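Suppose you are handed only these lines of text.
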Amino acid sequence: MEIEFRPGALVEQEVDTLIVPVGPGQELGDEAAAVNRRLDGALARLLADRDFKGAVGDTLVVPTFDRLPARQVVLTGVGAPERRGGGEIARAWSVAARAARDAGAQVVASGTPPAGQLSTAGSVRAATEGVILGLYRFLAYKTGPAPARTIETLVFAGGDAELKRGVALGEAVAAGVVLARDLGNQPPNALYPESLAAEAEALAEARGLGIQIYGPHELEEMGAGAILAVGKGSVHEPRLIHLTYTPQDSSRSAAQGSIALIGKSITFDSGGINLKPSGEGITRMKIDMAGGGAVLGAMSVVPSLGLPFTVHGVLAAAENMPSAGSFRPGDILTTMSGKTVEIGSTDAEGRLVLADALTYSIGQGAQALVDLATLTGSNVVALGEQGTGVYSNDQGLADEVLAAGRAVGELLWQMPLWEAYEGRLKGDFADLRNTSSRDGGAIFAALFIREFSQGVPWAHLDIAGPSWASRVTELSTVGATGHGVRSLVALLERRANGGAAGRA
Ligand code: BES
Ligand code: MN
Ligand code: ZN
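From them, the structure of the protein bound to BES can be written out as follows.
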C-alpha cells in the first residue's frame, strides 16, 4: 500500500472511499458535517435510523450517489474525546480500512483524526498504524492468485510537516509490528536460530545498527550454560543475537544511560524431554520466539526515533527439542552468572535462556532491562489472551512500562513478586530450581528471572497470551500479533522525553 498526501479538504478528494470519524451521541465532526451537507442531511438521518453509537469498532459504509467525488464513505466510531488515545484511533482506523477493503475500495482518503488526548502528529501516526495493521495478512506460503480485494493507496488530505512526520513514524512503527508478525507466523522449519540471526543481520544492515552474533563456540567461552543446554537437543544450534543502537551524539549517551530490550526467542518449543502433549498447544509453539520478534520489531523503529541513549536488543535463540543429546530433568546447569540451576522440567526453558541473556546484557553495561517472553501458560490463565503480565524489581520502571502500554492500547497489568514465594526458588542440589508447583506459575517464573537482574532495574513482560490471536481482533488477524512492539517504542519515547510526554 502506498501512502500519499494531497492538498484540499477530505470531501473533495478524488478517491473511491473516504474514512470519516463519528463520535458518540451522533454529533458530527467537521468532516462528517461536510459529507452530511453534500447529502442534504441524509447522513444525519441515516445515523439516527441505524442507531450508530460512534463507539470504537463501529463502522458503517454509506454510498454517496455522486454527490461527492468519492463513491462511498466509511464512517468509523472514535468514542468519547477523553478516552481517545493512540490505541483507540489505531483500532478505529483499522476497522475502517477493513470495511473499506470489503466494500471494494482501492484508493482511500483520510483526514487527521479528531485529536482527543493526542497531538496532530500522534493521531495521524495512530491512524497510519491502524490501517497498515488492520489490513495485514500473512500470505508467504499461499500459492495461487493474490486476494482480489486490496487497498492500493492511502491518501491523507493535507501535507503540512507535522502530518507528514506523524505518518512517517506510523509507517515505521507499523513496519516494526509487521516484522514481528511475519517472524511469528513463519513456520519453525523456516525460522530457527540461525535463520533468525540472518534476519537480525539483514535488519542491522538496513537500519545501521551494530550487531554481534554468538554461536555455540562463543557461548561456551562466555559460560552461557543455560542457552547451550536448552539448544542441545536440536539439530539447529543456538544463537545469542545482540543489536546495538548508539546515539549520533554519543557524548550524551553516558549522561542518558542505556536500556536493553531482551527477547525470549525459542523458535520452536516442543517441551524437550518433558514433551508437550499433542494438540493445539504444541502446534502453536512456533510463536515462542515472539519476545525476540517484538525486540527486533522495536529495534527496527529505534533509528527513526533520534533517541539520546544507547539501546541494546538481545535475543536468546534456541530450539527446544527432545533427542539423545537433550538436557534432561535432573540436570544441573551452570548459568553465565555462575549460579547453578537444577532442572525440574525441560519445558521451563524460557526462564533459562533469559537468565543468560540478562547476565549478558548487564555485562554490556545496560542500566535498565526489559524482557519480553512467551513465558507461561499460567499468565494466560490469569490475564486472558490479550493480557500481558508485568513483573518488575523497580516500581519506577514498571510505571513507565505500564504508561507506555496505556498510550498505545496494549493491555498491560502489573503482577506481584511476593517475598513469601521466594523460598520456592531454592534447589535441593543447586542454587535454584527452574520449576515449582503449578500454582502461581507465572509469578514463580518471574521470580526466577529476577535472580539474574543483579539489582539493575528490570521489567519482565509475559506475553504468552497476547503474542498470538486465536480470533480476529480489531488490530490483528488470527496468528502472530507483534504485540509489544508498540509499547516498547512508546517506552523508549517516554524515556527520551524524560518520562513525561509520551507519544509524538
Ligand atoms: N512457551 C511456553 C509457554 C507458553 C504457553 C507460550 C502458552 C505461549 C502460549 C513455556 O516455555 C512453557 O512451556 N511453560 C510451561 C512452564 C512449566 C513447565 C513450569 C507452562 O506454562 O506450562
Ligand atoms: Mn516450554
Ligand atoms: Zn517456551
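What can we learn from it? DSSP finds 16 helices and 19 strands in the chain. The chain has a mean pLDDT of 96.
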